[in-house]
Amino acid sequence: MSIDLSGLASYGVFLLTLAAIYGVVSLALNVQWGMTGLFNIGIAGFYAIGAYCAAIVTTPPSPSHLGGLGLPFGAGLMVAMAVSGLVAFFVGLLTLKLREDYLAIATIGISEIIRLVLKNEDWIGNGVRGIAGIARPLSANPLVYLAVVLLVLAATYFAVERARKSPWGRVLRALRENELGAQAAGKNIYRFRMEAFVLGSMIMGLGGALYAHFIGFVSPEAFEPVFATFLVWVMLIAGGSGNNKGAVLGAFVIWVVWSGTELLTNQLPADYVTQGSALRVLLIGVLLQVILLRRPEGLLPEERPHVGASPASSAEAEDEA
Amino acid sequence: MSNMVSIQGLSKAFGGLQAVNQCSFDIPAGGITGLIGPNGAGKTTLFSMVAGAFKPDSGKILLDGEDVTGLPTHKLFRKGLVRTFQIPHEFSRMTVRENLMVVPPGQSGENLISALLAPGRVRAQEQAVRQKVDDVLDFLQITHVANELAGNLSGGQKKLLELGRTMMTEARMALLDEPGAGVNRTLLGKLADAILRLNRERGYTFCIIEHDMDLIARLCQPVVVMAHGRVIAEGSMDDIRRNEEVREAYLGGHAARKLDEDAKS
Questions:
Q1: How do residues A165-211 score in pLDDT, each as one tens digit?
Q2: Contact with chain A for residue B251, Cβ under 8 A
Q3: What's this model's pTM, rounded to 2 decimal places?
Q4: How many CA atoms are closer than 13 Å to the CA of A44, on its beta-carbon side?
Q5: What CATH number should be reported for the domain whose range is B3-88+154-264?
Q6: Nearest chain A Cα to B112, which residue?
Q7: B184 in contact with A at a CB cutoff of 8 Å?
Q8: Rounded to whole angstroms, how far apart are CA atoms A291 and A296?
């Protein structure tokens, strides 16, 4: 129970849980941007799909929204990933053969469409009133849920890291580095882009589902681009694009900065609180600028195999498993 | 001798520019065919069509008798047709070794599901690919830069890496776009040796675009000459040297006017 936790500890658990959820989403963006160079600025859309799927699948039947199907937590995660992946597949069909800037425009458009549909089509998720009563698995205790989220984060990390180190990940890096070269190396670059885009979007959906169960309530407001897209980009770039450890580290660091500044702005006189929250967004923007100028590779740069090794050591098989 | 590639009436225009105009010639199997011509003759555009990067406006391309017109690059690659670029297209932030490890087709680890669920099989295959890379590096004598990032290589070394890429697959037909451009004399000799060895020992058929006439004379038979999108001569290097139209094409303006008049009539 959370009663026996002191206020600070309970705040800490809250902070860590959300940071870990963002860690999952940041890993997802790393698959798309860091590994493949796919410019997705519609993360919020896939995150929202995941959250609403989890809500619809796991809540008890209700006349005010689609479902609920009353199915267990795991089923919600599965459906969240499947639907996000399916939507990504269709977006990819339309955009992945075009130049990369079209993907950026298409994804931001689609994420806004998703948010506005959820806001205006009441039958899906009860419109602006949202869906409440999304239960946590196993126990209502936030510590138990933190453990669940950390477990999912760890599993995602290992899967994505294994994929990155595999020949599959190598092809993604190759096509990120040089599309024509990858084509000349016989790779069907469209297929690999599609796989990376769909995989990343599925993991974004997973993150959204975790979020829904944590907060217990979803409404279109939570999926404004600032929170669900912009912040994730800052996390990945700050942590180290291309590096999975960096993606997770960036999520924790930026989330602590972001939440920490909320504590500060809440201390302001009531008249200034609104301005204060706008200032937080500005602060994150400035932080992004500083990172891009001062340390563009992020806190943990993309791991590179031994550079400039002596001829004698070139036979060593340590650089890439 | 049979033809590895047969180019039949190929044309391609970019806007108002007729880059390749009714081009026809054959690349004999087992040979090293040279493709020369002044800048802007349409040689690279022709290569790009044969390699599947552009679709021709009209005409046909046969690979070993099979119509492959308009197939995408990766499908042609699977059929054993590979190309290199005039400007190297290396994967800069990957090592030389990784650059080559990318290439072999049909690696089970390139399938995301097996990459995630069958790491043992992937590892075994990686070992085999790594061995093959070592052989190629050894063949090209660039083992000492195996762990260097490809972006840090010299221009000539990048050219060798491009050639190395064609060796990582079971290629039958390799299109090399100016393999010698920007390569110093020592490295150029090495490159020519590598091409000859690949041709003799592994039965690669080559078609080489090159401006270095010594290299062409040393390696290529027959030689095809293009100017203004068309084939203007074909034959041995000696025939080509004596050919009046070729001389004029290389001299420029006058020949160009003549060709334009021919085209109009």
A1: 999 999 999 999 999 999 999 999 999 999 999 999 999 999 999 99
A2: no
A3: 0.88
A4: 27
A5: 3.40.50.300
A6: A168
A7: no
A8: 6
